[in-house]
Fold:
Amino acid sequence: MRLSHLWITAFVAVILSQTTIAQTEVGGDITSDTAWTAAGNPYIVVDTVRVLEGVTLSIEPGVRVKFDTAHSLEVAGILVARGTATDSVTFTSNAPSPQPGDWGSIKFDSTSVDAVFDSLGNYLSGSIIECCRIEYGGEEGGICCDRASPFIHQNLITANAVSGISCYGSSPKIEGNRIEGNADSLTDYGGGIFCASSSPTITENLICGNSAQYGGGVFCYGESYPRILDNTIVENWALRGGGICCFYYPKASALISGNDIRGNTAADLGGGIYTYGTMAWDINTNNIIGNSAANGGGIYCFNSSRLMNIAHNIISHNFASDNGGGLFCNSSAPTISDNSIIGNSASTYGGGIYTSGVSHYHFPLSITQNNITGNLATLCGGIYSADSSYLVMDYNNLVNMGQYEVYLNGVSEDVNAINNWWGTTNLDSIEAKIYDYCDDTTLAEVHFNPFLTLPVIGNPASVYSLRLKSDSTYSNDLTTDLWIGAEMYIQLEGTDSDSLSCDQTTVTLKGNLTDTTGIQVILTETDTTSGIFRGTARIDSISIEDLSIEAVVGETLTVISNIDSTQFVTVLVGKEGIKEGNISPIPKEIALFQNYPNPFNVTTLIRYHLSAVRGRPTAVTLKVYNLLGQEVITLVDKEQKPGKYEVSWDGRNRSVEEVASGIYFYRLSARDFHQARKLVILK
Structure:
């Protein structure tokens, strides 16, 4: 039962092993302006604390707030919790062995005072959570906003169990926090941050390792207008919306910009972002990389309007176990423009983009000025359009995506696809990249002529230099020795083609004549008008073992793209004067490398190194396992001498039966070295 007044037992002496610890017990209603200072540490919440209307609770840097089971901090007035980069405010469990869900959450009610900003966006007053650590929360997560708009900035929100922060009809500022390990097990919405009809400003937070059924990192619904800016949203899990999930009423909108959204997982839809029923939603200038889902590895849109804008993002190396590796648009008509959609994969259809159905008002799905390259799927690595989709696509680069760049299935309305670059100027070759009326007369036709004769989108208007640089300053050309593990700093210099944003382009590194795809290294413009693009790749191995020989033009390097270490290729050296460096023909350590290609269809190659120990052979096993940990096949089980090895696998088990598409693991054991890596089979 909540107490009718605030009660405090100040500086209670607790004797533990002859050590005196001061603490402050708090609970009940705060009826007048109150400050919690570091001198009162720790603050033990023995009953839910409620900040009443018209009252301010201020929490200073260094304060530690520990909650007894199920208790929360509820804000009907103003909460000002402001730590610093070196001295945060901590909200945590008071249990001896903390677990997610030990306590409630920080809840902002609809009566709480919203954050107020000046014309430059600087915080002036109202509720704010800044540079805090929120962990082991429970009911509705660490931070919950319902009809609230706090400012949430640079926080660590960790190990909570039903949202770390909850906003109900309020608009606080949430900035600079760490929001990690929360798990919404009560409402199933918003592992890290929960917003209901609220418009918080959420900036520069680390939101990682949270989970919920909807919105592992952030969940918003109702008539909300959140601003989610410059956050790192990584390794969260949900059924839908691993990183961010939003359900909106018709008038609601959101701004999601400048975020790093990586490695999130959705069991069903939208590994990075899931949207439902959104109107004026703006997703721009985010890195959406390495997320996974059954459908829509990077982004899944359902019933979204033409006012939804997806622009200037890097959508790269996301994976869908079914359809839509990069994006899945279901009955939606967003504008998809100026993105780099690169290296995504799907087990079935649409490695880059999968589109299905028609938007409510029959507006077209507009795909314009994107760099769509190097995506992969069993059928159509590029853009797969199904079930009466209505498409308009122009001024895109559509290259290196398997047999088909565009594939229609059940589409009866012709597609306007003029002015795109298809990687060739041969009319028949372009036609062969498209599956439409010419292949099945029940389908619509893709009108692709006139087409571009040079790639454009995401590239400078013209290029006058492409160089390897010696270090991250990009100040000097690469003329020194190369070694395994060294970075290749790539700088492209040209004329800016779009002064509105920092563009992205790609450099494709290809090997010998049998290598038709190579790897794509993403380069990003240094500012909106510079025309200078930079990115990196890593040298994995060098072809020559004789230390006295220079790697001159015509020799080979094996290069790994830093955007995704699973992608590598052997490329020709194109610059004289690059020397090999001190490379031993015998590896100095045991190493297991990522298989290539990955995902794969027919065969894949697994490479590993064995170091020397007194010249003796080493007992080595290399095995493949399924997701249940069951052994599929043993590839190596014998003693081997020190050296470099490679083994191919054709996707068959020990009974020589083809295994199903999906995720598998291969594990190398040699002496005290044990390492496993993930591989993906696409049939």
Observations:
- Residues 591-681 form a domain with the Immunoglobulin-like fold (CATH 2.60.40.1930).
- Residues 1-20, 146-162, 544-555, 572-585 have pLDDT under 50 and may be disordered.
